[in-house]
Amino acid sequence: MKKKDIKKLTKDQSIREITKLKKDLFNIRFKKINGQLQDTAEFLKIRKNIARLYSNIGNKK
After folding, report:
1. For the residues of the chain, what is the DSSP string, one character each?
2. Using an 8 Å Cβ cutoff, are 25 and 43 in contact?
3. Domain ranges for the chain
4. 11, 57 in Cβ contact below 8 A?
5. How do residues 5-58 score in pLDDT, each as one tens digit?
6. Considering the entire predicted model, what is its pTM?
7. What pLDDT digit, counting tens, does each position of 26-40 carry?
8. Which of 46, 56, 49, 52 has the alpha carbon at shortest distance from 37?
9. What pLDDT does 2 receive?
């Protein structure tokens, strides 16, 4: 997600997106262990998006 897209989200939408990304992160960890992961940078991209969403929630208060 891009920063401007994240800023447009409401608090509830941000929370839903965080839970979705956490599930993706969980699945990527298993793929990494099994050697099935093709794009290793995706792990960091998801973590950064989660952090951006948490920041967005904090700024909305």
Report:
1. --HHHHHHS-HHHHHHHHHHHHHHHHHHHHHHHHT--S-THHHHHHHHHHHHHHHHHHHH-
2. yes
3. 3-60
4. yes
5. 988 999 999 999 999 999 999 999 999 899 888 888 999 999 999 999 999 999
6. 0.86
7. 999 999 899 888 888
8. 46
9. 85
Side chain identity at residue 39, one-letter code: D
Given the candidates 1.10.287, 2.30.30, 3.90.550, 1.10.1740, the CATH classification of the domain at 3-60 is 1.10.287
Alpha carbons 27 and 24: distance in angstroms, whole number: 5
| Cα(7)–Cα(3) distance, integer angstroms | 6
